[in-house]
Amino acid sequence: MASSDSVLKTSEETYEYICTSCAEDDLIKEAVKYCVECQRYCCQDCINIHRRIPVTKDHSFLDNSSVKSQGQSISLPAIPTKQCSKHVGMIMYMYCKNHDVVCCHTCAVEDHRSCQDMVSVSDNIDQLYSQTDTSKTSSDINSGIDDMNGEKNNTDALLQQLRELKEAAIKTANDFRIEMEQLLRKLEEASVNEIENEYKKLETQLLDNKKKYDDLIDDLKNLKQLLVQASGNIAQQFVCSKLAQQYINTMDTGKISSSNIRYAELLFRPCDKLKTSIESKTKLGTTTSAMLSRYDDLYKVTKTCKMDVESWDDLFGCNITGSCIIDDTVLFTVSRNNKLMRYDILSSSLIDYCSTPRDPRGTCRVGDKEVAVACNSVVQFLSVEDKLALSRSLEMKHKSYGIAYSNDKLYITDKSKSLYMYDMSGNILKTVTSDNSGQRLFECSNHITFNDKKDRLFVGDDKKGLLCFNAECDYIETITDPDVRPDGVCVDSYGYVIIANYHSHTILQCGRDGQKLGVIVNEANCPNNPRSVCIHTRLQRMFVSSYANTVWVYHLCGK
Asked: Under CATH, domain 299-558 is a member of which superfamily?
């Protein structure tokens, strides 16, 4: 247990020097001396332990040193205590200026024999420390921690997505099994109906024969009765006998011969091919999986199909100019027909649609239950909780084209020369048209997207390139790669920026900073003049729209 003058490593309390041994046990205690033989700083408790152990009781301790660091007198010498991870027991007290690394004596001999600028850290600490920007190092460490925490959170999110995908895959397998059982049940019902029909045919014929036999038996019994009644009248007996004989002769050649069935068969032979086909299967279907590197791998298109989004009541061609993902659905703005349409991603089936104000363009998610649509000089909000339904709206004093949302702020472009930032009440917070030097930023400010991973706002301009801003709409840079001329832009769950190039008819993938990584869809496999792009990372579907009635759907995976 820690003593009263020690604290856990997580404490904010700091000392100029700490006890090396206690620090290894996650305790922070102030060092009062330095053990020369152990090459460790020691607190008073560790010094007392030294003096009680025969092996260490004669160790030498340094204190009240006149060694100076940063111009100030210190109580203990500035001596490294970090042991080398490569050579056990060796202290990393050497510094190689040529390679800018610290190492132990053995490392210096093995790896830096030819290096000219190898010095002792302790002997040159004043000069070395003054040349080291420790505040920057600390900032870099904190930035690294933040980045790793971000990646850890991303990994947690991926694990959650993977668990959900597993459950969804199992449900799909169960649903398929139920579907197959229903199909087998239908086949069984059809086979039973066929058996019943054939049985009815045979049964009817046999029952008809049975009735004929009953009729014959009745006729023969009647003739027999006539013979009995004619006893004593030989003439009557003769007549009845002849009638009976004639009837019997007729019966033999007619009714009996036509009804004489000696064999009936009703069998069911299972379909061996169906059985063999099922027996040849080891599972209900195939399972596929893919891992996509979040930094250097491009999405790869595995399948391309088209989705017709024209409805029966459309007055004009669709001209789909905007899109966004909401859960497992995709929304499209249909500018000429003034609609917002919602489709199920996996089935590509229309769920519902809603009329909007005139000329809807960009759309984005706003919280969990709303979307916002840029409609000419109005931003229209719609509920997506159940059915698509209009809710509130905000009047703009300018045209609106692209729209994005983050942290209770709306970012809007006018497809001209400006970018606007609003609060959710419709108050304009900032208008951006030029950089700090007064140079005009935009020629055609198109669609816009926000990257939560980097707190960056990206604006597509098909004449200037991809413009980057921070969350406060402060200009950062313009990606001027000649291949980057976007109209549509979106960000996936990993922070990749996806670009729909209007003039080159291609879809590009860029990094979190907006720098081009490569082409996902080339001109031969892309709609002409793509206007918008959106991507569902988990379901790995990408939707590209243009001034057409058809949306191109790309099935994706990692390389």
From this structure: TolB, C-terminal domain (2.120.10.30)
